């Protein structure tokens, strides 16, 4: 990984959160019902979260829809400091309950 970081000027990665009736996974906007806030930790331990300079770009945010169907929230991480990626930890993801489910799809990192 160090070799890729040394040879690269920038990097990008995508993460998709698939959710069923789980509004707590919604990234854009907050409600007082939300108990947690998703944050992502990069390779160099820096935190990517809403409202910070390292806020990920949100391509799609449908997890707030609670209609009994699966939805998704899609995030793109792009940085000119390649040592910030890959994302190695995701925190504050609420535990699944009987009527709420989720799973994550972690995309590969593209070093440029």
In brief:
This protein has 112 residues and is mostly beta strands. It has one helix spanning 2-7; strands spanning 11-20, 39-42, 47-48, 57-61, 70-79, 87-91, 101-106, 110-111.
β-strand percent reads 35-45%
End-to-end Cα distance, whole Å, is 13 Å
CATH class descriptor name = Mainly Beta
Helix coverage percent: under 10%
The CATH topology turns out to be Jelly Rolls
Shape: elongated
The tally of beta strands, per DSSP, is 8
Report the mean per-residue pLDDT as an integer. Answer: 85
Radius of gyration: 15 Å
Spans where pLDDT lies below 50 across 5 or more residues: 30-35
SS field, number of helical segments: 1
Second CATH tier, the architecture: Sandwich
Structural class based on helices, strands and sheet pairing? mainly beta
Q: Helix and strand string, N-terminal first? A: HEEEEEEEE
Number of domain units: 1
Itemize the secondary structure elements and their pairings.
Elements: H1 2-7, E1 11-20, E2 39-42, E3 47-48, E4 57-61, E5 70-79, E6 87-91, E7 101-106, E8 110-111
Antiparallel strand pairs: 1-5, 1-7, 1-8, 2-3, 2-6, 4-5
Subcellular location: Secreted
Keywords: Collagen, Secreted
Protein name: Fibrillar collagen NC1 domain-containing protein
Folded structure, characterized:
The protein is mainly beta and 112 residues long. The chain has a single domain, classed as Jelly Rolls (Sandwich). Helices cover 5% and strands 39% of the residues. The protein is built from one helix and eight strands; from the N terminus they run H-E-E-E-E-E-E-E-E. Strands 1, 4, 5, 7 and 8 form a five-stranded antiparallel β-sheet that branches. A hairpin with an 8-residue loop joins strand 4 and strand 5. The longest helix has 6 residues. The two termini are 13 Å apart.
